[in-house]
Amino acid sequence: MLNTNPSVCHKVQMPFLAQNNIDLEIKRDDLIHPVVSGNKWRKLKYLLMDAQAKDCKTLVSMGGNWSNHLHALAYAGKELGFNTAAFVRAHEGQRLTPTLEDCRQWGMDLIFTSRVDYAQLRHSFQWNHFAEQFPQSYWISEGGFSELAIKGAEEIGRELEQEYDHIFVGTGSGATLVGLAKACPESLVTGVASFSGAEYLHAQLEPFLKPQSNWRIDCEHHCGGFAKSNSELDSLVEEFHHHNDVRLDKVYNGKCLLAVKSAVAQGRINQGSKVLMIHTGGLQGMR
Question: Which of 48, 220, 225 is nearest to 144 (CA)?
Answer without folding.
Answer: 48
